[in-house]
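Treating backbone geometry as a discrete language has practical consequences that deserve illustration. Part of our work consisted of pairing the sequence of a single chain with a tokenised description of its backbone. What the numbers capture is local backbone geometry rather than side-chain detail. For completeness, the protein is quoted in full, as a sequence line and a line of structure tokens:
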Amino acid sequence: MNAPDTSGQQAGLPTIVLVHGAFADSSSWNGVIAHLRRRGYPAIAVANPLRGVQEDAAYARSVVDSIDGPVVMVAHSYGGLVITEAADGAANVKALVYVASISPDVGESVVDLVMKYPGSQLVTSIKMVPFPLPDGGTGMDQYIQQDKFPAVFAADVAPEVAELMAVTQRPATASAQTGSVTKAAWKTIPSWTLISKQDQGIPPDLQRFLADRAGSTVIEVDGSHAVAVSKPGPVADFIDTAARATMR
């Protein structure tokens, strides 16, 4: 695996490793990355496999382990489980940033947490699609129904962009959504949480509960679940704040 290109990096700044969640891909960070790179940050958006918590975390950790120097891991949505697991024990990870995301404790899954707070529209918007497993069995992929995607996932994104996001969404397996973490890196690594106040995917009250439990530094933004797409500037500002706090 090649290490990320750090040309143009400002001396002393950590590498920002961005992990997307379900129903999205690495391009969902494009706007945020543009802002970060203008500030001199090296960045890499991990192609999260979305196959299972442990598998996805191991893949993200392999990316982190390929990077020389300090790292700030940033997650959206289900990606929060991935960085919570992957960052544990990684000496170069200096901060965790959760963006409209989930910061679970050991034994908790997406389903466990989302069902505790009302407000998520995902449950009634999912389409299940079977796919073959290597062992001859059958797995189930979860998609958001395309006609419901803009309202549920990206209500404040330009309609033409939200429609493209619906068509190009990457599914997560049902087992990824029910899988739980075995480690909780936020217990030993400082965390920052950006709460999306108009989120129809992960209820804002759940985001607040998780941030409070983790002792996270919090900002609230008037955005949808796709806040990194609709408001990349404020998201990048928040990541910058977290990154600079690790350099003091």
